[in-house]
Task: structure prediction
Amino acid sequence: MYKILYLTTEKLEGIDLLKEDFGKLDFELEIQTVLDKKICQKSRNFDFVLIDFEVENFDVLKCFIESGFIVMLLQGCECKNYNQAQLDDKKIKYIPSDFFWNCLNYNLNLLKIELENFKKIKDLELKNFDMENFIYSAFHDLKTPLFTLQGFLANFKEKYYEKLDEQGVKYLMSISNSAKRLAKMINDVFEFFRFEKVDYKFEKVNVLYNLRVALDEIQVLLEDDDIVINLVGFENKDVFVKAHNLFLTKVWVNLLTNAIKYRKDNEKLVINIGVNDVKPNFYEFFVEDNGIGIDSKLHNFIFELFTRIKEKDEEGTGVGLSIVKKIITKHNGKIWLESQKNIGTKFYFTLPKYEIEN
Result:
């Protein structure tokens, strides 16, 4: 049963009958005629606040709204101390008083649906909050024993490495590499969830400048003479998108790092980075390489968490492309790929054009 608090300055007749009508639709009604901020603090157990439009104390109304209550105003003939702009600003629901009471069953049924949806949203927000706390707690709980393990491995290597036979060295290196990979996976997973929670502040971003920042960031990986990078479609034109500057850099870094990581042995790596102006409100970008390619079986799963391009991948954690998709999706863009094994891969993604708002 849902609980409704009805605030009014009017003296009501037939209160018991009114409560009975509400009760038939699983609503428990309580009526208050004394209006002050203490009511808001005492009313935490109510699901909905119904306020008579003649209530003159806007501070009380504001108190309920800021406390997270669903608020509905019954619209009377006049509004003395707050105006339409204030109501619209607070996104308050309001309805003509005669219509509400004359069609009580209809309005209460609509209200019930809204309350059920509101409850589902609140439950989902609570679950997300619990999940975030769990992720942060698990991240720190996993890091502590891992640091301890890596510390013991370093001490063991320093003191006993010379005493180990060939098989012992092999075991030690295997354990050390596994610990490093586990550390990277923990950091990558934490970063993946961080991109979900962070506030995305979009601004005007010069894509070519942003790309150059990404290339500088991975300069060490590009020092190989057998890597060639071509820019396509950027000639004599500035490309501006509405994006988060740092996160767009992350997209370039992840896609380019992937291309370098999964190159063919003993073959020059060619990476084409381009832009197509083929959509009215979006630019289409691509990163194309002539690397080992991606098996067609993975095309539908490659952006899912922990999906790795190679089955025996000692470096990848299967998180990088998931982060890329999350960032692009947050920008209302799309990402997809074309790839053939042993031929190469071409990742496409779209971003909204920056347009000056009138």
User: Anything to note?
Assistant: The two ends are 49 Å apart (CA to CA). The chain is about 45% helix and 20% strand. The first strand starts at residue 2 and ends at 7.
